[in-house]
Amino acid sequence: MSTIAVLGAGKIGEALLSGLLHAGRAPESLLFTERHPERAADLTERYGIASTEVPEAAKRADVLVVAVKPQDIEPVLDQLAPLVGPGSLVVSLCAGLPTALYESRLAEGTPVVRVMPNTPMLVNEAMSAISPGRHATAEHVRTVEELLSSVGKVLVLPESQQDAVTALSGSGPAYFFYLVEAMIDAGILLGLPRAVAEQLIVQSAVGAAKMLNESAEHPVLLREAVTSPAGTTINGIRELEKHGVRAALLDAIEAARDRSVELGRPHQQG
């Protein structure tokens, strides 16, 4: 069994480790790095996985999952460069960072796969999009698909689409949370207790998501099924359209895409 090291055990890194354990991985086949000793000790106690430093992880692991913040990538690459080569698989979970960055800094021929996951990984419902770099083979892609399938669903896409993926599904949960927050506030405005408003909206969101996932119907048809002539829903939809909610969402997702491009721009030439 290959050894997997997660470099950066933040929320996403921890969620991946937890998912791999639930999928049957032995703790002995996993490693992680974490800058804060207290958190590292807590994760080791909770999951039985050893913490280590980046150079040691690079020596021991076959698969290196880079899950640090994009702005923290340079020191990690500095530590990996003398140790990582074609025999290792590098999986980047860093928003905006192209595979070309890793390929230019690591030994020639090092396989790299870029991934955009999202925070529902914490409940094993992630949507992850993966894109192979120049040296990644079909076998490498299958390895990453298997890895991420333990925490949700996986799509393989060209890297040219990764900035759009980052804006849509990477940031997407935050948009849903934002809308749910606003709807709970609306329930309070209408006189409902916060706990009641929260239960009503959260379960409605869960049910609506399940219908979207399990139904073959287009979202427009599902919405129309709730929208009776001259009823309450159409009056609410009219107000959403009047205030430009659809246009605001389009602009928000486009702005997130632009920020993803901006994060990667300094690294486009390596």
Automatic annotation (TrEMBL):
Q: What class of enzyme is it?
A: oxidoreductase
Annotated binding of NADP(+), by residue: A67, V68, K69, P70
Q: Which SUPFAM superfamilies does the entry mention?
A: 6-phosphogluconate dehydrogenase C-terminal domain-like (SSF48179), NAD(P)-binding Rossmann-fold domains (SSF51735)
InterPro entries registered for this protein in UniProt: 6-PGluconate_DH-like_C_sf (IPR008927), NAD(P)-bd_dom_sf (IPR036291), P5C_Rdtase_cat_N (IPR028939), P5CR-like_CS (IPR053790), P5CR_dimer (IPR029036), Pyrroline-COOH_reductase (IPR000304)
Q: Where in the cell is it found?
A: Cytoplasm
What Pfam families is this protein classified in? F420_oxidored, P5CR_dimer
Enzyme Commission (EC) number: 1.5.1.2
UniProt xrefs under Gene3D superfamilies: NAD(P)-binding Rossmann-like Domain, ProC C-terminal domain-like
The question of whether Amino-acid biosynthesis is a record keyword is answered with yes
Q: In which pathway does it act?
A: Amino-acid biosynthesis; L-proline biosynthesis; L-proline from L-glutamate 5-semialdehyde: step 1/1
Name the Gene Ontology biological process terms.
L-proline biosynthetic process
Q: Which reaction does it catalyse?
A: L-proline + NAD(+) = (S)-1-pyrroline-5-carboxylate + NADH + 2 H(+); L-proline + NADP(+) = (S)-1-pyrroline-5-carboxylate + NADPH + 2 H(+)
The record places domain Pyrroline-5-carboxylate reductase catalytic N-terminal at 3-96
* Domain Pyrroline-5-carboxylate reductase dimerisation, chain residue ranges per copy: 159-263
Family per similarity comment? Belongs to the pyrroline-5-carboxylate reductase family.
PANTHER family reported for this sequence: PYRROLINE-5-CARBOXYLATE REDUCTASE, PYRROLINE-5-CARBOXYLATE REDUCTASE 3
Function according to Swiss-Prot or TrEMBL: Catalyzes the reduction of 1-pyrroline-5-carboxylate (PCA) to L-proline.
**HAMAP family linked:** P5C_reductase
Name of the molecule in the record: Pyrroline-5-carboxylate reductase
Q: Which gene encodes it?
A: proC
